[in-house]
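Budget justification note: compute hours in this period were largely spent on complex prediction jobs such as the one shown. Inputs:
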Amino acid sequence: MAKKGMKIAESKGRLGVLMPGMGAVATTFIAGVEAIRRQLALPIGSLTQMGTIRLGKRTEARRPRVRDFVPLAGLENLEFGGWDLFHDDAYEAAVKAGVLEARHLDPIQDFLKGIKPMPAVFEQRFVKNLKGENIKRGKTKMDLAEQLMEDIRNFRKASGVDRLVMVWCGSTEAFLLPGTVHETLAAFEKGLRSNHPDIAPSMIYAYAALKSRVPYANGAPNLTVDAPALLELAGKLRVPVCGKDFKTGQTLLKTIIAPGLKARQLGLHGWFSTNILGNRDGEVLDDPESFRTKEESKLSVLEYILQPELYPELYKNFYHKVRINYYPPRGDNKEGWDNLDIFGWLGYPMQIKIDFLCRDSILAAPIVLDLVLFLDLAQRAPEMARRGIQEWLSFYFKSPMHAPGLYPEHDLFIQLMKLKNTLRHLRGEEMITHLGLEYYD
Ligand SMILES: NC(=O)c1ccc[n+]([C@@H]2O[C@H](COP(=O)([O-])OP(=O)(O)OC[C@H]3O[C@@H](n4cnc5c(N)ncnc54)[C@H](O)[C@@H]3O)[C@@H](O)[C@H]2O)c1
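Corresponding output:
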Protein backbone atom coordinates (compact mmCIF):
# COMPACT_ATOMS: atom_id res chain seq x y z
CA MET A 1 0.00 0.00 0.00
CA ALA A 2 1.52 3.35 -1.02
CA LYS A 3 2.16 5.90 1.75
CA LYS A 4 1.82 9.61 1.23
CA GLY A 5 4.68 10.95 -0.87
CA MET A 6 6.73 14.12 -0.40
CA LYS A 7 5.44 17.51 -1.34
CA ILE A 8 6.54 18.34 -4.90
CA ALA A 9 5.54 21.54 -6.67
CA GLU A 10 4.07 21.06 -10.13
CA SER A 11 6.33 21.38 -13.15
CA LYS A 12 4.60 24.46 -14.55
CA GLY A 13 6.01 26.62 -17.33
CA ARG A 14 9.45 26.45 -18.90
CA LEU A 15 12.81 25.29 -17.57
CA GLY A 16 16.05 27.03 -18.57
CA VAL A 17 19.31 25.08 -18.81
CA LEU A 18 22.43 27.20 -18.42
CA MET A 19 25.80 25.70 -19.23
CA PRO A 20 29.22 27.22 -18.62
CA GLY A 21 31.17 25.62 -21.48
CA MET A 22 29.44 25.14 -24.82
CA GLY A 23 31.72 22.51 -26.32
CA ALA A 24 31.22 18.91 -27.37
CA VAL A 25 29.05 17.71 -24.48
CA ALA A 26 26.82 20.79 -24.23
CA THR A 27 26.14 21.02 -27.97
CA THR A 28 25.56 17.27 -28.33
CA PHE A 29 23.03 17.56 -25.50
CA ILE A 30 21.26 20.64 -26.92
CA ALA A 31 21.16 19.34 -30.50
CA GLY A 32 20.01 15.95 -29.25
CA VAL A 33 17.09 17.37 -27.28
CA GLU A 34 15.99 19.41 -30.29
CA ALA A 35 16.28 16.40 -32.65
CA ILE A 36 14.22 14.33 -30.19
CA ARG A 37 11.60 17.08 -29.90
CA ARG A 38 11.28 17.04 -33.69
CA GLN A 39 10.99 13.26 -33.61
CA LEU A 40 14.16 12.82 -35.66
CA ALA A 41 15.78 10.56 -33.06
CA LEU A 42 15.26 8.71 -29.77
CA PRO A 43 16.59 9.68 -26.29
CA ILE A 44 18.75 6.56 -26.02
CA GLY A 45 20.87 6.42 -22.88
CA SER A 46 18.50 8.57 -20.83
CA LEU A 47 17.04 6.86 -17.77
CA THR A 48 14.39 9.54 -17.33
CA GLN A 49 13.10 9.14 -20.90
CA MET A 50 13.60 5.43 -21.66
CA GLY A 51 13.82 3.81 -18.20
CA THR A 52 11.03 2.22 -16.20
CA ILE A 53 10.63 1.72 -12.46
CA ARG A 54 9.08 -1.27 -10.76
CA LEU A 55 6.50 -0.43 -8.08
CA GLY A 56 5.08 -2.80 -5.45
CA LYS A 57 5.19 -6.57 -5.77
CA ARG A 58 6.38 -8.35 -8.91
CA THR A 59 2.84 -9.74 -9.27
CA GLU A 60 1.35 -6.21 -9.48
CA ALA A 61 2.97 -5.56 -12.88
CA ARG A 62 3.27 -1.82 -12.22
CA ARG A 63 6.25 -0.58 -14.27
CA PRO A 64 5.72 3.01 -15.37
CA ARG A 65 8.33 4.98 -17.25
CA VAL A 66 10.37 7.13 -14.86
CA ARG A 67 9.15 10.28 -16.61
CA ASP A 68 5.53 9.27 -16.02
CA PHE A 69 6.12 8.33 -12.38
CA VAL A 70 7.66 11.59 -11.12
CA PRO A 71 6.61 15.04 -12.34
CA LEU A 72 9.57 15.97 -14.55
CA ALA A 73 9.74 18.90 -16.93
CA GLY A 74 8.88 17.86 -20.48
CA LEU A 75 11.55 18.16 -23.19
CA GLU A 76 9.27 20.59 -25.04
CA ASN A 77 9.68 23.00 -22.12
CA LEU A 78 13.48 23.24 -22.10
CA GLU A 79 15.32 26.44 -23.12
CA PHE A 80 19.11 26.60 -23.49
CA GLY A 81 21.82 29.15 -22.79
CA GLY A 82 25.45 29.25 -21.78
CA TRP A 83 28.85 30.83 -21.64
CA ASP A 84 32.06 30.11 -23.53
CA LEU A 85 35.39 31.80 -24.18
CA PHE A 86 34.88 31.26 -27.90
CA HIS A 87 32.24 33.20 -29.85
CA ASP A 88 30.95 30.16 -31.81
CA ASP A 89 27.18 29.71 -31.64
CA ALA A 90 25.86 26.24 -30.77
CA TYR A 91 25.81 25.22 -34.45
CA GLU A 92 29.40 26.24 -35.17
CA ALA A 93 30.57 24.70 -31.88
CA ALA A 94 28.75 21.43 -32.67
CA VAL A 95 30.30 21.30 -36.17
CA LYS A 96 33.78 21.90 -34.70
CA ALA A 97 33.24 19.33 -31.96
CA GLY A 98 32.58 16.81 -34.74
CA VAL A 99 30.34 14.54 -32.68
CA LEU A 100 27.05 14.76 -34.56
CA GLU A 101 26.79 14.32 -38.30
CA ALA A 102 25.30 16.77 -40.79
CA ARG A 103 22.16 14.62 -41.08
CA HIS A 104 21.38 15.52 -37.46
CA LEU A 105 22.74 19.08 -37.39
CA ASP A 106 21.46 20.42 -40.73
CA PRO A 107 17.73 20.14 -40.02
CA ILE A 108 18.13 22.08 -36.75
CA GLN A 109 20.75 24.56 -37.90
CA ASP A 110 18.58 27.66 -37.37
CA PHE A 111 17.66 26.59 -33.87
CA LEU A 112 21.31 26.00 -32.91
CA LYS A 113 22.50 29.25 -34.50
CA GLY A 114 20.12 31.09 -32.15
CA ILE A 115 22.08 29.91 -29.09
CA LYS A 116 25.06 32.22 -28.64
CA PRO A 117 27.45 31.97 -25.73
CA MET A 118 27.63 34.80 -23.21
CA PRO A 119 31.16 36.04 -22.34
CA ALA A 120 32.88 33.64 -19.96
CA VAL A 121 34.55 34.05 -16.61
CA PHE A 122 37.94 32.58 -17.41
CA GLU A 123 41.43 32.47 -15.97
CA GLN A 124 44.23 31.03 -18.02
CA ARG A 125 45.97 29.62 -14.94
CA PHE A 126 43.21 27.02 -14.58
CA VAL A 127 43.04 25.87 -18.22
CA LYS A 128 46.51 26.35 -19.70
CA ASN A 129 45.86 24.99 -23.18
CA LEU A 130 42.98 27.32 -24.14
CA LYS A 131 43.07 30.97 -25.18
CA GLY A 132 39.75 32.63 -25.86
CA GLU A 133 38.40 36.01 -26.77
CA ASN A 134 34.84 36.04 -25.36
CA ILE A 135 35.77 36.83 -21.77
CA LYS A 136 34.34 39.05 -19.04
CA ARG A 137 36.44 41.74 -17.42
CA GLY A 138 36.04 42.73 -13.79
CA LYS A 139 38.13 44.30 -11.03
CA THR A 140 37.42 41.49 -8.59
CA LYS A 141 36.10 37.96 -8.69
CA MET A 142 33.04 39.27 -6.84
CA ASP A 143 32.44 41.71 -9.76
CA LEU A 144 32.58 38.73 -12.11
CA ALA A 145 30.12 36.77 -9.96
CA GLU A 146 27.75 39.75 -10.05
CA GLN A 147 28.02 39.91 -13.85
CA LEU A 148 27.07 36.25 -14.00
CA MET A 149 24.06 36.87 -11.73
CA GLU A 150 23.05 39.66 -14.08
CA ASP A 151 23.36 37.22 -17.04
CA ILE A 152 21.13 34.76 -15.19
CA ARG A 153 18.50 37.44 -14.52
CA ASN A 154 18.62 38.60 -18.16
CA PHE A 155 18.32 35.05 -19.47
CA ARG A 156 15.35 34.42 -17.22
CA LYS A 157 13.63 37.57 -18.49
CA ALA A 158 14.48 37.19 -22.19
CA SER A 159 13.56 33.50 -22.44
CA GLY A 160 10.56 33.70 -20.13
CA VAL A 161 11.57 30.58 -18.18
CA ASP A 162 10.07 29.89 -14.78
CA ARG A 163 12.92 27.85 -13.35
CA LEU A 164 16.61 27.29 -14.08
CA VAL A 165 19.32 24.65 -13.67
CA MET A 166 23.06 25.12 -14.29
CA VAL A 167 25.36 22.29 -15.46
CA TRP A 168 29.13 22.82 -15.71
CA CYS A 169 30.14 21.53 -19.15
CA GLY A 170 33.33 23.59 -19.20
CA SER A 171 36.88 22.26 -19.48
CA THR A 172 38.57 20.44 -16.62
CA GLU A 173 40.42 22.97 -14.49
CA ALA A 174 43.86 22.53 -12.92
CA PHE A 175 44.03 20.50 -9.73
CA LEU A 176 43.09 22.46 -6.62
CA LEU A 177 43.28 21.31 -3.01
CA PRO A 178 40.59 22.68 -0.68
CA GLY A 179 42.13 25.52 1.35
CA THR A 180 41.06 27.98 4.05
CA VAL A 181 39.36 30.24 1.47
CA HIS A 182 36.96 27.37 0.66
CA GLU A 183 36.21 26.56 4.30
CA THR A 184 33.41 28.99 5.12
CA LEU A 185 31.07 31.16 3.10
CA ALA A 186 32.43 34.27 4.84
CA ALA A 187 36.05 33.36 3.89
CA PHE A 188 34.96 32.58 0.32
CA GLU A 189 33.11 35.89 -0.12
CA LYS A 190 36.11 37.74 1.31
CA GLY A 191 38.26 35.81 -1.19
CA LEU A 192 35.98 36.85 -4.06
CA ARG A 193 36.38 40.48 -3.08
CA SER A 194 40.17 40.20 -2.68
CA ASN A 195 40.77 38.09 -5.83
CA HIS A 196 42.04 35.07 -3.94
CA PRO A 197 44.09 32.95 -6.39
CA ASP A 198 42.49 29.67 -5.23
CA ILE A 199 39.00 30.64 -6.37
CA ALA A 200 38.62 28.98 -9.77
CA PRO A 201 36.21 30.26 -12.47
CA SER A 202 33.96 27.21 -12.03
CA MET A 203 33.48 28.24 -8.38
CA ILE A 204 32.46 31.74 -9.43
CA TYR A 205 29.76 30.26 -11.68
CA ALA A 206 28.64 27.97 -8.85
CA TYR A 207 28.47 30.88 -6.43
CA ALA A 208 26.43 32.96 -8.91
CA ALA A 209 24.07 30.03 -9.53
CA LEU A 210 23.47 29.28 -5.86
CA LYS A 211 22.99 32.96 -4.97
CA SER A 212 20.36 33.04 -7.74
CA ARG A 213 18.79 29.86 -6.24
CA VAL A 214 19.68 27.87 -9.33
CA PRO A 215 20.60 24.17 -8.76
CA TYR A 216 24.13 23.29 -9.93
CA ALA A 217 25.59 20.07 -11.34
CA ASN A 218 29.30 19.69 -11.95
CA GLY A 219 30.16 17.61 -15.02
CA ALA A 220 33.93 17.92 -14.61
CA PRO A 221 36.23 16.71 -11.82
CA ASN A 222 37.09 20.24 -10.58
CA LEU A 223 36.44 20.95 -6.92
CA THR A 224 33.87 23.65 -7.76
CA VAL A 225 30.81 23.18 -5.56
CA ASP A 226 32.39 20.32 -3.57
CA ALA A 227 33.81 22.72 -1.00
CA PRO A 228 32.40 23.56 2.45
CA ALA A 229 31.88 27.27 1.61
CA LEU A 230 29.66 26.57 -1.39
CA LEU A 231 27.87 23.73 0.38
CA GLU A 232 27.15 26.14 3.21
CA LEU A 233 25.55 28.49 0.69
CA ALA A 234 23.58 25.63 -0.92
CA GLY A 235 22.31 24.56 2.53
CA LYS A 236 21.44 28.10 3.58
CA LEU A 237 19.43 28.82 0.43
CA ARG A 238 18.17 25.22 0.07
CA VAL A 239 19.49 24.67 -3.43
CA PRO A 240 20.27 21.15 -4.70
CA VAL A 241 23.78 20.44 -5.99
CA CYS A 242 25.56 17.37 -7.35
CA GLY A 243 28.82 16.27 -9.01
CA LYS A 244 31.53 15.49 -9.94
CA ASP A 245 32.62 14.37 -13.41
CA PHE A 246 30.10 12.68 -15.72
CA LYS A 247 30.48 8.91 -15.60
CA THR A 248 31.00 7.95 -19.24
CA GLY A 249 33.36 5.67 -21.21
CA GLN A 250 36.03 3.80 -19.37
CA THR A 251 34.92 4.63 -15.84
CA LEU A 252 31.36 3.59 -16.65
CA LEU A 253 32.70 0.19 -17.71
CA LYS A 254 34.88 -0.02 -14.59
CA THR A 255 31.91 0.51 -12.33
CA ILE A 256 30.00 -2.18 -14.25
CA ILE A 257 32.80 -4.79 -14.22
CA ALA A 258 34.45 -4.28 -10.81
CA PRO A 259 31.25 -4.97 -8.79
CA GLY A 260 30.87 -8.22 -10.79
CA LEU A 261 34.43 -9.36 -9.96
CA LYS A 262 33.89 -8.56 -6.30
CA ALA A 263 30.49 -10.28 -6.28
CA ARG A 264 32.20 -13.49 -7.47
CA GLN A 265 35.17 -12.96 -5.09
CA LEU A 266 37.66 -12.94 -7.95
CA GLY A 267 40.99 -11.24 -7.19
CA LEU A 268 42.75 -8.43 -9.03
CA HIS A 269 46.50 -8.02 -9.51
CA GLY A 270 46.29 -5.00 -11.77
CA TRP A 271 44.12 -2.84 -14.01
CA PHE A 272 45.82 -0.79 -16.71
CA SER A 273 43.66 1.72 -18.59
CA THR A 274 44.81 3.83 -21.48
CA ASN A 275 42.93 6.19 -23.77
CA ILE A 276 43.54 8.08 -26.97
CA LEU A 277 41.26 11.00 -27.77
CA GLY A 278 41.51 14.00 -30.00
CA ASN A 279 38.84 16.49 -29.00
CA ARG A 280 39.27 19.79 -27.15
CA ASP A 281 38.81 17.94 -23.87
CA GLY A 282 41.79 15.77 -24.82
CA GLU A 283 43.81 18.88 -25.65
CA VAL A 284 43.00 20.40 -22.24
CA LEU A 285 43.85 17.12 -20.49
CA ASP A 286 47.23 17.15 -22.22
CA ASP A 287 48.23 19.70 -19.60
CA PRO A 288 49.52 17.76 -16.55
CA GLU A 289 47.64 19.98 -14.07
CA SER A 290 44.24 19.42 -15.71
CA PHE A 291 45.10 15.72 -16.12
CA ARG A 292 45.87 15.46 -12.40
CA THR A 293 42.30 16.58 -11.58
CA LYS A 294 40.94 13.93 -13.97
CA GLU A 295 43.32 11.25 -12.75
CA GLU A 296 42.26 11.65 -9.11
CA SER A 297 38.66 11.30 -10.21
CA LYS A 298 39.31 8.17 -12.28
CA LEU A 299 41.59 6.39 -9.81
CA SER A 300 39.44 6.45 -6.68
CA VAL A 301 36.67 4.35 -8.25
CA LEU A 302 38.27 0.89 -7.92
CA GLU A 303 39.50 1.37 -4.33
CA TYR A 304 35.99 2.15 -3.15
CA ILE A 305 34.28 -0.62 -5.09
CA LEU A 306 36.78 -3.39 -4.30
CA GLN A 307 37.29 -2.50 -0.60
CA PRO A 308 40.85 -3.92 -0.19
CA GLU A 309 40.63 -3.38 3.58
CA LEU A 310 37.76 -5.90 3.73
CA TYR A 311 39.23 -8.32 1.17
CA PRO A 312 43.03 -8.10 1.53
CA GLU A 313 43.63 -11.55 -0.05
CA LEU A 314 41.88 -10.40 -3.22
CA TYR A 315 42.59 -6.70 -3.60
CA LYS A 316 45.48 -5.55 -1.39
CA ASN A 317 48.02 -3.56 -3.42
CA PHE A 318 46.42 -4.11 -6.83
CA TYR A 319 48.16 -1.95 -9.43
CA HIS A 320 45.94 0.67 -11.07
CA LYS A 321 47.11 3.02 -13.79
CA VAL A 322 45.13 5.42 -15.99
CA ARG A 323 46.66 7.17 -19.00
CA ILE A 324 45.03 9.70 -21.33
CA ASN A 325 46.81 10.61 -24.53
CA TYR A 326 45.86 13.44 -26.85
CA TYR A 327 45.69 12.06 -30.37
CA PRO A 328 43.99 14.55 -32.75
CA PRO A 329 43.02 12.17 -35.61
CA ARG A 330 40.40 10.48 -33.39
CA GLY A 331 38.40 13.59 -32.51
CA ASP A 332 35.61 12.81 -30.05
CA ASN A 333 35.62 9.11 -30.99
CA LYS A 334 38.07 7.95 -28.43
CA GLU A 335 39.49 4.51 -27.88
CA GLY A 336 39.95 3.14 -24.40
CA TRP A 337 41.92 -0.04 -23.75
CA ASP A 338 41.80 -1.90 -20.48
CA ASN A 339 43.92 -4.81 -19.42
CA LEU A 340 42.84 -6.58 -16.24
CA ASP A 341 45.03 -9.18 -14.55
CA ILE A 342 42.65 -11.13 -12.37
CA PHE A 343 42.96 -14.40 -10.44
CA GLY A 344 40.58 -17.17 -9.44
CA TRP A 345 40.36 -20.49 -7.57
CA LEU A 346 43.75 -21.37 -5.94
CA GLY A 347 45.18 -18.14 -7.32
CA TYR A 348 45.27 -19.13 -11.02
CA PRO A 349 45.76 -16.00 -13.17
CA MET A 350 43.47 -14.87 -15.99
CA GLN A 351 43.29 -11.78 -18.18
CA ILE A 352 40.48 -9.63 -19.50
CA LYS A 353 41.03 -7.20 -22.40
CA ILE A 354 38.57 -4.50 -23.29
CA ASP A 355 38.78 -2.25 -26.30
CA PHE A 356 35.98 0.31 -26.07
CA LEU A 357 35.55 2.38 -29.22
CA CYS A 358 33.32 4.86 -27.55
CA ARG A 359 31.88 8.28 -28.23
CA ASP A 360 32.28 10.27 -25.07
CA SER A 361 29.79 13.01 -25.75
CA ILE A 362 27.18 10.53 -26.98
CA LEU A 363 27.44 8.91 -23.55
CA ALA A 364 27.52 12.24 -21.71
CA ALA A 365 24.56 14.02 -23.38
CA PRO A 366 21.80 11.85 -21.83
CA ILE A 367 23.49 12.29 -18.44
CA VAL A 368 23.16 16.06 -18.81
CA LEU A 369 19.48 15.66 -19.68
CA ASP A 370 18.72 13.41 -16.71
CA LEU A 371 20.62 15.67 -14.30
CA VAL A 372 18.75 18.74 -15.52
CA LEU A 373 15.37 17.06 -15.03
CA PHE A 374 16.21 15.46 -11.68
CA LEU A 375 17.82 18.60 -10.21
CA ASP A 376 14.76 20.58 -11.20
CA LEU A 377 12.60 17.92 -9.54
CA ALA A 378 14.72 18.12 -6.37
CA GLN A 379 14.38 21.90 -6.36
CA ARG A 380 10.57 21.55 -6.41
CA ALA A 381 10.61 19.04 -3.51
CA PRO A 382 11.56 21.07 -0.40
CA GLU A 383 12.55 17.91 1.54
CA MET A 384 15.16 17.15 -1.14
CA ALA A 385 16.29 20.72 -1.83
CA ARG A 386 17.06 21.49 1.81
CA ARG A 387 19.62 18.67 1.88
CA GLY A 388 21.96 20.41 -0.61
CA ILE A 389 24.01 17.46 -1.94
CA GLN A 390 21.83 15.06 -3.95
CA GLU A 391 23.72 11.84 -3.31
CA TRP A 392 21.00 9.81 -5.04
CA LEU A 393 22.38 11.19 -8.33
CA SER A 394 25.76 9.42 -7.74
CA PHE A 395 24.73 7.11 -10.61
CA TYR A 396 25.82 9.79 -13.07
CA PHE A 397 29.27 10.68 -11.65
CA LYS A 398 32.82 9.37 -11.48
CA SER A 399 33.44 11.09 -8.11
CA PRO A 400 30.05 11.32 -6.46
CA MET A 401 29.65 14.07 -3.88
CA HIS A 402 28.65 12.89 -0.43
CA ALA A 403 28.15 14.10 3.13
CA PRO A 404 31.30 14.54 5.28
CA GLY A 405 32.27 11.29 7.02
CA LEU A 406 30.71 9.05 4.37
CA TYR A 407 32.54 7.25 1.62
CA PRO A 408 31.20 7.68 -1.93
CA GLU A 409 29.15 4.88 -3.46
CA HIS A 410 30.67 3.92 -6.83
CA ASP A 411 28.99 0.60 -7.64
CA LEU A 412 26.67 1.37 -10.58
CA PHE A 413 24.07 -1.15 -9.43
CA ILE A 414 23.88 0.16 -5.86
CA GLN A 415 23.74 3.68 -7.32
CA LEU A 416 20.80 2.70 -9.52
CA MET A 417 18.96 1.11 -6.61
CA LYS A 418 19.58 4.24 -4.53
CA LEU A 419 18.26 6.45 -7.33
CA LYS A 420 15.11 4.39 -7.89
CA ASN A 421 14.43 4.00 -4.17
CA THR A 422 14.71 7.77 -3.80
CA LEU A 423 12.07 8.20 -6.52
CA ARG A 424 9.83 5.64 -4.76
CA HIS A 425 10.38 7.46 -1.47
CA LEU A 426 9.48 10.78 -3.12
CA ARG A 427 6.18 9.33 -4.32
CA GLY A 428 5.38 7.36 -1.14
CA GLU A 429 5.88 3.95 -2.76
CA GLU A 430 7.39 1.00 -0.86
CA MET A 431 11.16 0.47 -1.10
CA ILE A 432 12.09 -2.60 -3.12
CA THR A 433 14.29 -4.91 -1.02
CA HIS A 434 14.37 -7.91 -3.42
CA LEU A 435 13.66 -10.22 -0.43
CA GLY A 436 10.67 -11.84 -2.10
CA LEU A 437 10.01 -14.60 0.48
CA GLU A 438 6.32 -13.73 0.44
CA TYR A 439 5.93 -15.21 -3.06
CA TYR A 440 6.63 -18.66 -1.50
CA ASP A 441 4.23 -18.43 1.48
N1 LIG B 1 32.71 13.99 -22.90
C1 LIG B 1 32.55 13.22 -21.85
O1 LIG B 1 32.10 12.13 -21.95
C2 LIG B 1 32.89 13.72 -20.49
C3 LIG B 1 32.84 12.84 -19.44
C4 LIG B 1 33.13 13.29 -18.16
C5 LIG B 1 33.46 14.60 -17.97
N2 LIG B 1 33.54 15.43 -19.03
C6 LIG B 1 33.94 16.79 -18.77
O2 LIG B 1 32.96 17.66 -19.28
C7 LIG B 1 33.59 18.85 -19.69
C8 LIG B 1 33.17 19.17 -21.11
O3 LIG B 1 33.65 18.18 -21.98
P1 LIG B 1 33.66 18.45 -23.56
O4 LIG B 1 34.05 17.18 -24.21
O5 LIG B 1 32.40 19.12 -23.94
O6 LIG B 1 34.87 19.48 -23.67
P2 LIG B 1 35.02 20.65 -24.75
O7 LIG B 1 36.47 21.05 -24.65
O8 LIG B 1 34.48 20.29 -26.07
O9 LIG B 1 34.10 21.81 -24.17
C9 LIG B 1 34.42 22.54 -23.04
C10 LIG B 1 34.14 23.99 -23.35
O10 LIG B 1 34.30 24.73 -22.14
C11 LIG B 1 34.80 26.00 -22.49
N3 LIG B 1 35.32 26.59 -21.27
C12 LIG B 1 36.45 26.32 -20.61
N4 LIG B 1 36.53 27.08 -19.50
C13 LIG B 1 35.42 27.85 -19.46
C14 LIG B 1 34.95 28.84 -18.58
N5 LIG B 1 35.64 29.18 -17.51
N6 LIG B 1 33.75 29.41 -18.84
C15 LIG B 1 33.02 29.06 -19.96
N7 LIG B 1 33.46 28.14 -20.85
C16 LIG B 1 34.63 27.54 -20.58
C17 LIG B 1 35.81 25.70 -23.58
O11 LIG B 1 36.06 26.83 -24.37
C18 LIG B 1 35.09 24.60 -24.36
O12 LIG B 1 34.35 25.12 -25.44
C19 LIG B 1 35.09 18.63 -19.54
O13 LIG B 1 35.52 19.15 -18.30
C20 LIG B 1 35.21 17.16 -19.51
O14 LIG B 1 36.36 16.71 -18.80
C21 LIG B 1 33.25 15.02 -20.29
